[in-house]
Amino acid sequence: MSCPYAKPSQMDANGVRDDRVVTTSNGFPINEPFATQRVGEHGPLLLQDNALLDNLAHFNRERIPERNPHAHGSGAFGYFEVTHDITDICGSAMFDTIGKRTKTLTRFSTVGGEKGSADTVRDPRGFATKFYTEEGNLDWVYNATPVFFIRDPSKFPAFIHTQKRNPQTNLKDADVFWDYLTQPANQVAVHQLCILFSDRGIPQTYRNMNGYSGHTYKWSNKNGDWHYVQVHLKTDQGVKNYTAEEAAQIAGQNPDICHQDLFENIEKGNAPTWTVYIQTMTEEESKKLPFSVFDLTKVWPQSQFPLRPVGKLCLNENPQNFFAQVEQAAFAPSNTVPYQEASADPVLQGRLFAYADAQRYRLGPNYHQIPVNCPYASKFFNPMIRDGPMNVNGNFGSEPNYFSDKTNYQFVQQSRPIQQHQEVWNGPAVPYHWVTEAGDIDFVQATDLYRKVLSKQDGAQGRLAHNIAIHAANCKSVDMQKRVVSMFSRVDEQLGKNIADEISAINSTNGKPKL
Ligand code: HEM
User: Fold this and answer.
1) Distance of CA 105 to CAs 94, 231, 317, 340, 370, Å?
2) How close is the Cα of 67 to the center of ligand 1, in Å?
3) Ligand 1: does its nearest atom lie under 6 Å from the Cβ of 30?
4) Is 466 in contact with 500 (CB distance < 8 Å)?
5) Angle, CA of 485, 164 and 149, to the nearest 5°
């Protein structure tokens, strides 16, 4: 038998009969698909009818747990092409030559809704890309928004719960949503909320939105020089969004509009592309920032840290099978390649644990053997990672399951010097979270967005107030509505007033007091 783990992974279905003879799952040819074995013509069925049992039993096991969060999504294959030399910043092989292409898989998603929920909801969009590089699989598990709601990973489950259904009513609950987000400690979300409730909160299609690392990453070149890095993927199709009213109507008419748009455009050869840029920052520069470089609720000003082009992401191939290639895809920030590291951002550090753990539960411990997840461009070999449910790659055959003295193992040393003088962390183990309350600094970028960016877009400030107001008007509690107004008044007094006026107008039609 040839060495099974030396074979490249197959992306296509295997084990299918060429003659298309229909069989049970153990290969027994079925002569009549809908016949059942029974006693006499009208009698009860026989337990020996394996074709029927096989059919019914497998149907009962078709579903796997949906992702929690980001259950609803669409995906496509493509490639990343290097257009600019950044080897002074990053030594990863995928960047080593201009014109080099790396095969990719991208999955777009919404966050809070269930697998079958509508595409045009107000929610951040996930933008996750797997690069099948010669140094292993690299996942950029990004969002279509440059910041996030939290900066303490311990808050993630509570935050996501507030975006999902109320445990008693099983309804989405505006009071719960705003109760969490207006608590003083959680108002660090205000910058992300201003983006979420702006026009960008409902992209028209997945092709018409940008992607952002959000987090600070740490990239180094082959000499060991390193930078903090943020990545931006800017859509070449232009940013286009729906208003709240358009989106609500479309959600009723065609809830899968973004999925359909992506599939059909790729099918007709209209492959969407994104220009990939990086922002870079030295450690010295990071010390002069008015906020922590590890604070996920802040953007790096582009005037100070300009975008530098790197390459293009192009999505030009639809999956052949959605379940096999998109539902079973497993993206994780911990899947990285040499010279691209996580920074000490606590949310990113928390994510380094969360994804592979979720996938061991959702897909099983051998999820990396599912063809779409295999590092097929680099191959996988580790005699210690063996056995487990659904082991299907030959399990390394007769290879010893420890590092035997009799075998020549190879351990590749990266060419960069060991980073012993970088970011030296020292100190006792302490129960740390940033600060108990969001401070003025946490409102600065939200205010800048409102006053300096939205003011230049026709009607955008008004739409922000409107979108917040129509959401918060759903709160049963008027006190909760007041908390919403008070938080956004801290971004800009006029914004708070506009929200209050519109909530009051809606309240008066619902028999509720004005604010
Ligand atoms: C502590 C914070 C976070 C935790 C614990 C967390 C956890 C998770 C988990 C468990 C999943 C489902 C994974 C699966 O079943 O395959 C997921 C999906 C996802 N998360 Fe996060 N997340 C966090 C923050 C973020 C942030 C800040 C971003 C973006 C910058 C992000 C982007 C995504 C995306 C794009 C997906 C969907 C991936 C796919 O398409 O399969 N998450 N997250």
Assistant:
1) 15, 17, 9, 19, 14
2) 9
3) no
4) no
5) 55
- Which residues does 147 contact at the CB level (< 8 Å), separation at least 6? 191, 192, 195, 214, 296, 297, 298, 299, 445
Q: Decide if 143 is catalytic.
A: yes
Going by C-alpha positions, the residue among 431, 485, 447 that lies closest to residue 181 is 485
Question: Which ligand 1 atom is the nearest neighbour of the CA of 68?
Answer: 12
Please report the DSSP string for 156-177 in residue order. HHHHHHHHSB-TTT-SB-HHHH
Q: Is the CB of residue 172 less than 8 Å from the CB of residue 471?
A: no
ipTM greater than 0.95 = yes
pLDDT tens sequence across 308-340: 999 999 999 999 999 999 999 999 999 999 999
Report d(CA 394, CA 387) in Å as an integer. 10
Question: Could you report the per-residue pLDDT of 51-83, keeping only the tens digit for each?
Answer: 999 999 999 999 999 999 999 999 999 999 999
Query: Is 466 a known active-site residue?
Result: no
How far, in whole angstroms, is CA 218 from its chain's centroid? 19
Q: Take residue 8 and report the two structure tokens written for it.
A: 């490249």
pLDDT digits (tens, 9 = 90+) for 94-142: 999 999 999 999 999 999 999 999 999 999 999 999 999 999 999 999 9
Q: Is 355 annotated as a binding residue?
A: yes
Strands 73-82 and 308-317, by their bridges, are antiparallel
Q: Does the N-terminal peptide bond of residue 69 adopt cis geometry, omega within 30 degrees of 0?
A: yes
Q: What are phi and psi of 300, to 5 degrees?
A: -90, 125
Q: Which two tokens stand for residue 224?
A: 């060991």
Which atom of ligand 1 is nearest to 213's Cα?
30
Answer yes or no: is the C-beta of 330 below 6 A from any ligand 1 atom. Answer: yes
Query: Which distant-in-sequence residues (6+ apart) come within 8 Å of 380 by Cβ?
Result: 5, 368, 374, 393
Beta bridge partners of 23: 29
| Pocket of ligand 1 contains residue 362 by CB under 6 Å | yes
133 CA distance to ligand 1 centroid (A)?
22
Neighbour-count burial for 98-128, b at 16+ CB within 10 Å, e otherwise: eebebbbbbbbbbbbbeeeebbbbbbbbbbb
Q: What is the pTM of this model?
A: 0.96
Active-site choice (72, 137, 143, 191): 143
Q: For residues 174 and 477, what is the distance between their CA atoms, to the nearest angstrom? A: 10
pLDDT higher than threshold 50 for residue 170: yes
Would the CB of 153 count as within 6 Å of ligand 1? yes
Does 7 have pLDDT greater than 60? no
HEC assignment per residue over 205-230: CHHHCCEECCCCEEEECCCCCEEEEE
